[in-house]
Structure formats: structure tokens, C-alpha cells
From TrEMBL:
Coiled coil: none annotated. This is Peptidase S1 domain-containing protein. PANTHER family: ATRIAL NATRIURETIC PEPTIDE-CONVERTING ENZYME (PTHR24258:SF146), SERINE PROTEASE-RELATED (PTHR24258). It comes from Halocaridina rubra (Hawaiian red shrimp). Gene3D superfamilies: Trypsin-like serine proteases. Residues 48-177 form the Peptidase S1 domain. The lineage of its organism: Eukaryota, Metazoa, Ecdysozoa, Arthropoda, Crustacea. GO terms for biological process: proteolysis. One of its GO terms (molecular function) is serine-type endopeptidase activity. Transmembrane segments: none annotated.
Length: 177
């Protein structure tokens, strides 16, 4: 029999223990769901100029990706599939050829955390709808590894406009810290 020494530690260890009652806890892993933030902890908000602002913690926004042009942050995207990101065409307007990478799982642009993943961007598809600025970005090679730090957002189904007006939305972006 074993017990977990510290469930909040970054490196969980198991310690042997005596279990005279012979009671057992069974744990099983299931498929990781989209749109779930398993590491999110509700913050103590601070109000700045009438809006709520806070620094994100690791795993708070696992579908958020930074798009890097030649190693420099250019814009952001949302993971919608282990091989695809969603962003806006404005990100690429006026841009010449460059090496584009997607960085997922980090809360700092320069993060070297072990769960941060970088993927080469190998293509993009602009929406064919007139006036649309939606772009799908294809990631290279194998799919990103889905984890507590990297997982896709859920794409909604067909929803009426009245349902959309009742939803709360958040804007994500990379600050200066």
C-alpha cells in the first residue's frame, strides 16, 4: 500500500504505508475533455480601471497559444484540435515569409517549463466567407500532446443569437510581465 506524499507538489511521490484496514482507492484516467481547465484556481481579483485583471497561472487557459514569427511573439491563437489552431488573418497581413511557431502550455513567452510545447506552423486556411477574418493554422508533425496544460477549447454547436448574448466571454493576451 502507498500514499501520495504531497498532492500539490510538482513532483508527486508515493510513500509505502501500513494499511491495517486493507481499504483501497481506485483511480482511472479518462479521455481529457475539451474546454476544461483542471488546474484553474479562482483568483483574488484586483480591479484596474473598471476591469478585472489578473496574471494567469499554469494551466488556467490550456487552449491559448502564442504565435511566434522568427522567435518573436506576433499574435495569439486558440487550440481547437491537436493539429489545428484558430486565429485571425490580421495576424499575417503584411507579413513576409518567416518561420512561424506555435507555443502552447506556457504562461510566459519565454517559459521553459517541461509542459510547454512548440510546433512548427506548416500551413493556413483562410475562411472562404466574404468579410471573414478567421484563419485555421495547421501544426507540423505529430499532434500536440493533450494534458492539463494543453488541451483544445470546445467549439459550440449551432446556437441561436439569443443564446450567444447570454454567454460570458474573456479576452486573453500576453502582457508585459
Amino acid at each position: 500500500y502507498v500514499q501520495i506524499s504531497d498532492v500539490k507538489a510538482s513532483n508527486i511521490t508515493f510513500e509505502p504505508v501500513n494499511c491495517t484496514r486493507r481499504s483501497v482507492v481506485y483511480m482511472a484516467c479518462t479521455e481529457l475533455a475539451c474546454g476544461i481547465r483542471p488546474l484553474y484556481v479562482a483568483p483574488q481579483h484586483k480591479v484596474v480601471e473598471g476591469g478585472v485583471v489578473r496574471t494567469a497561472g499554469s494551466g488556467d487557459w490550456p487552449w491559448s497559444a502564442a504565435l511566434l514569427k522568427d522567435g518573436v511573439h506576433a499574435c495569439d491563437a486558440t487550440l481547437i484540435h491537436p493539429s489545428w489552431l484558430l486565429t485571425t488573418s490580421i495576424c499575417f497581413q503584411g507579413q513576409g515569409r518567416a518561420l512561424w511557431m506555435a507555443r502552447l502550455g506556457g504562461i510566459r513567452i519565454s517559459s521553459k517549463a517541461p509542459w510547454v510545447q512548440e510546433k512548427l506552423i506548416v500551413g493556413m486556411v483562410k475562411a472562404q466567407v466574404p468579410g471573414s477574418q478567421i484563419v485555421l493554422i495547421k501544426l507540423a508533425d505529430a499532434e500536440v500532446e493533450i494534458s492539463d496544460y494543453v488541451r483544445p477549447a470546445c467549439l459550440g454547436s449551432h446556437t441561436s443569437v439569443s443564446d450567444l448574448t447570454k454567454r460570458r466571454c474573456r479576452s486573453l493576451g500576453w502582457g508585459s510581465r
